[in-house]
Design goal:
Blueprint lengths: L1 H5 L3 H8 L3 H9 L8 H13 L2 E4 L7 E4 L9
Antiparallel strand pairs: 1-2
Helix pairs in contact: 2-4
Length: 76
């Protein structure tokens, strides 16, 4: 969902985060919290946050993401 907000491909996220496309695909295909090296998860989260996403903690409605501010090309 996070990549969708940004309209990023797997390659876009891989290039921005420094994590391989194969690892990102495995993370996205997993159920629940991805089974990945903590450093890779941190790199992906940092890249998405720096692109303008805010991670929402689970508060009864489930975890998610939202835009901090409008992203170029996306109307909110």
């Amino acid at each position: 969902m996070a990549r969708g907000y940004l309209r990023w491909s797997v390659r876009d996220l891989a290039d921005t985060s420094g994590v391989s496309p194969a690892t990102i695909k495995r993370m996205e295909e997993s159920e629940g919290v991805p089974k990945a090296i903590t450093d890779n998860l941190a790199k992906v989260e940092k890249a998405l946050a720096e692109a303008g996403l805010e991670f929402i903690a689970e508060n009864g409605g489930g975890p998610g993401v939202r835009l901090k501010a409008p992203v170029l090309g996306i109307q909110g």
